[in-house]
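> call design_seq(struct)
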């Protein structure tokens, strides 16, 4: 018998600096573990509800984090409002983690994410290793240009310089207009550009996270999509190389397995195969 679809419950979150948002929680009655899921750049949490409900039907309590500047966030990026990875990692994620712990006491805790979300979930584990006992990834990889095959290897270093420049000039990145991300803060794009051009995860105000990432020791389950040029398998391996003590298991999904296009975003509306594979793994 199929488990009933879990209703999304909004949980009010307030970060240490006063930023407010809502965590969307899908809580099955028989949850055996919890997952804090981080969206891709510019994607509101609500777009992951089909994925969260699919995992909830498989016994995972899922909490969808909202990035600052999007969806239910109380802030919007602009000339008068800026932030960087530092605020996302040091203020917003701890607030969501505290809410997850309160809403699902005693459950083994997992972290994960899509695209930028998977990168920042990895960075958060470097900053706070006790925040999760396992890492789940989908369509994620480091944006370092050397990790990409041609011709995209030629595009990434240009984007890593041009997008932060555009964000600085416009006051924020007009992502909806140019077809990359959303309306993103200048500081976020500076940190993203640094990773794209240098390969470093060195957010302003936090320093180089390389040594701390190398010390992370958790099991990792990662889904890669065969038609995903934004996060090809080579970029996933680049990200996992920053976590050498992790224990990764990787599955590659094509159109036949997904029942839809095997690109960066289509799986979000047809998440059953990805949810099945992730939920097969151990609690941590």
């Amino acid at each position: 018998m199929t488990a009933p679809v879990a209703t999304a419950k909004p949980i009010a979150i307030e970060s240490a600096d006063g930023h407010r948002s809502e965590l969307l929680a899908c809580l099955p009655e028989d949850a055996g573990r919890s997952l804090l899921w981080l969206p891709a750049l510019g994607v509101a949490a609500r777009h992951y509800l089909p994925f969260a409900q699919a995992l909830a039907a498989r016994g995972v309590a899922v909490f969808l984090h909202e990035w600052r500047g999007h969806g239910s966030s109380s802030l919007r990026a602009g000339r008068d409002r800026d932030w960087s990875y530092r605020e996302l990692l040091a203020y917003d994620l701890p607030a969501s983690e505290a809410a997850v712990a309160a809403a699902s006491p005693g459950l083994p805790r997992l972290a994960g994410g899509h695209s930028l979300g998977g990168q920042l979930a990895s960075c958060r584990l470097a900053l706070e290793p006790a925040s999760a006992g396992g890492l789940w990834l989908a369509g994620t990889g480091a944006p370092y240009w050397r990790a990409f095959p041609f011709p995209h290897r030629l595009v990434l270093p240009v984007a890593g310089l041009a997008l932060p420049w555009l964000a600085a000039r416009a006051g924020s990145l007009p992502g909806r207009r140019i077809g990359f991300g959303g309306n993103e803060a200048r500081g976020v794009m500076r940190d993203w550009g640094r990773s794209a051009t240098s390969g470093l995860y060195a957010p302003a105000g936090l320093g180089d996270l390389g040594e701390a990432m190398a010390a992370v020791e958790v099991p990792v389950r990662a889904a890669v999509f065969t038609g995903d040029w934004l996060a090809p398998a080579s970029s996933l391996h680049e990200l996992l190389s920053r976590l050498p003590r992790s224990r990764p298991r990787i599955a590659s999904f094509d159109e036949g397995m997904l029942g839809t296009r095997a690109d960066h975003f289509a799986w979000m509306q047809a998440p059953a195969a990805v949810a099945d594979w992730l939920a097969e793994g151990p609690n941590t």
